[in-house]
Specification:
The protein is of the alpha+beta class. 35% of the residues lie in helices and 25% in strands. The protein has 2 domains: 214 residues, Nucleotidyltransferase, domain 5, CATH 3.30.420; 74 residues, no CATH class.
Length: 323
C-alpha cells in the first residue's frame, strides 16, 4: 500500500499551492509572471534543472499526441462551486511538475447560459459535474488532455498538516478576522512571529485576506498574502518530503475524491519517487481582468489570453521552433 499512497504525494502538495494561487480575487498584479497584464516566460538560469533528456516537439499537437505526461485537474470545492482549479502536468520521466492555476472567475462562453455568474468557470460543476469542468478546462488549455481529477476539501488540508506535526512559518503580523457566513466559518486569530501551525491554524493562515478593520492586513495586498503563503508551502513541502509520506497522504485520503485507479496509481508511484520541491513550478493562467455589463451591473471576469496560454503550454511540453 505504500506505493499506492505515494501516488498522491504530488497532488497533495499541488493542492496546497493551488489554495494561494487560485483562491484570491484576480488582479494583474497577482502573479510574478504577469507583467503589464501579459504572461512572461520565466527566465532560465544556469542553475535551473537541465532539460537535456526532454524529448522535443515541433508543435503542441504533436506533443499532445506523443508526450508521456500525466495531466491532473485538482479542484478545491466551495459547496457546488470550484473555488480552486489547478492544472498539473507531471513529467514522470524527468521528474518535474508544471502547474497552471486557473482563476475561479475565468470567463467561458456557455451556450444557453446567459446569467452573469454562469459565465464563470466555477459555476460549471453545479450543472455539468466533473466532466463539464474537464471539458471546459481542456478547451481553455488548447485541447490538452486531462487524464485524472482530484478533489480535496478543507478537512484534508488540516489532517495532512497535523500528520507531519505542523508547519513552521513566520507570521508577519497578528491576524484577526471573523466571518460566520464563510464555509467553513472563519474565526482567525494568529499571533505575530515564528511558530509552528497545526492543521486548523494553518488553514486559517492560508485563508486569511484582511482583518474586519480595513486597516488590518498585508501592506501590499494580495502580493503580501501570496508571499506569506508561499513561505508556508515551501515549509510544508520540505517537511512533508522528509516525513513518512504514506502516513501524510493516508491521513488526508478520506477527504480526497479521485478517479485514479489502483493500477494507475501503482504505475505512477514507481516513477514519481524522487520528485523534489524544486522540481515543482506553477504560474497563473495568462490573461487579464475585465468588467462586463449584465443587466445593468458590472461584473468582474478573468479573460484568458489564448496566444500566451498556447505559448505557456508549448514551453511546458518542450515545443521547439513551433510551426
Amino acid at each position: 500500500m505504500k506505493r499506492f499512497w505515494s501516488a498522491f504525494i504530488v497532488s497533495s502538495i499541488l493542492f496546497f499551492i493551488a489554495i494561494y494561487l487560485g483562491s484570491y480575487s484576480f488582479t494583474k498584479f497577482n502573479d510574478p509572471h504577469i507583467i503589464g497584464g501579459q504572461y512572461q516566460k520565466p527566465i532560465v538560469t544556469k542553475e535551473d534543472k537541465s532539460d537535456d533528456r526532454k524529448e522535443e516537439f515541433t508543435s503542441l499537437k504533436e506533443a499532445i499526441e506523443k508526450s508521456n505526461r500525466i495531466n491532473l485537474m485538482i479542484l478545491g470545492m466551495e459547496d457546488i462551486r470550484t473555488d480552486v482549479i489547478i492544472f498539473a502536468s507531471i513529467d514522470l520521466d524527468n521528474k518535474t511538475v508544471n502547474g497552471i492555476s486557473v482563476p475561479r472567475d475565468t470567463y467561458i462562453h456557455r451556450k444557453g447560459f446567459d446569467g452573469a455568474e454562469q459565465r464563470k468557470i466555477y459555476a460549471i460543476y453545479g450543472e455539468h459535474g466533473i466532466k463539464g469542468v474537464n471539458k471546459a478546462l481542456s478547451y481553455i488549455l488548447e485541447g490538452v488532455p486531462i487524464h485524472h481529477y482530484i478533489i480535496v476539501d478543507y478537512e484534508g488540508v488540516k489532517h495532512m498538516v497535523d500528520a507531519i506535526g505542523g508547519v513552521e512559518v513566520v507570521v508577519p503580523f497578528t491576524m484577526r478576522y471573523t466571518d460566520p457566513t464563510a464555509v467553513p466559518p472563519l474565526n482567525i486569530y494568529i499571533e505575530e512571529g515564528k511558530q509552528i501551525l497545526n492543521g486548523e491554524k494553518a488553514l486559517d493562515f492560508l485563508r486569511y485576506r484582511k482583518g474586519n478593520n480595513s486597516k488590518e492586513g498585508y501592506i501590499d495586498g494580495d502580493l503580501g498574502r501570496i508571499k506569506a503563503q508561499q513561505q508556508f508551502i515551501q515549509s510544508f513541502v520540505r517537511k512533508a518530503l522528509s516525513y513518512r509520506l504514506p502516513i501524510v497522504v493516508k491521513k488526508g485520503f478520506e477527504y480526497v475524491e479521485t478517479d485514479i485507479k489502483l493500477s494507475d496509481a501503482l504505475s505512477y508511484a514507481a516513477k514519481a519517487i524522487g520528485i523534489k520541491s524544486e522540481d515543482i513550478t506553477i504560474v497563473t493562467l495568462p490573461g487579464t481582468g475585465e468588467f462586463k455589463s449584465f443587466d445593468g451591473k458590472l461584473l468582474s471576469y478573468f479573460i484568458c489570453d489564448p496566444f500566451k496560454t498556447k505559448e505557456l503550454l508549448e514551453d511546458i511540453y518542450n515545443v521547439k521552433n513551433p510551426q
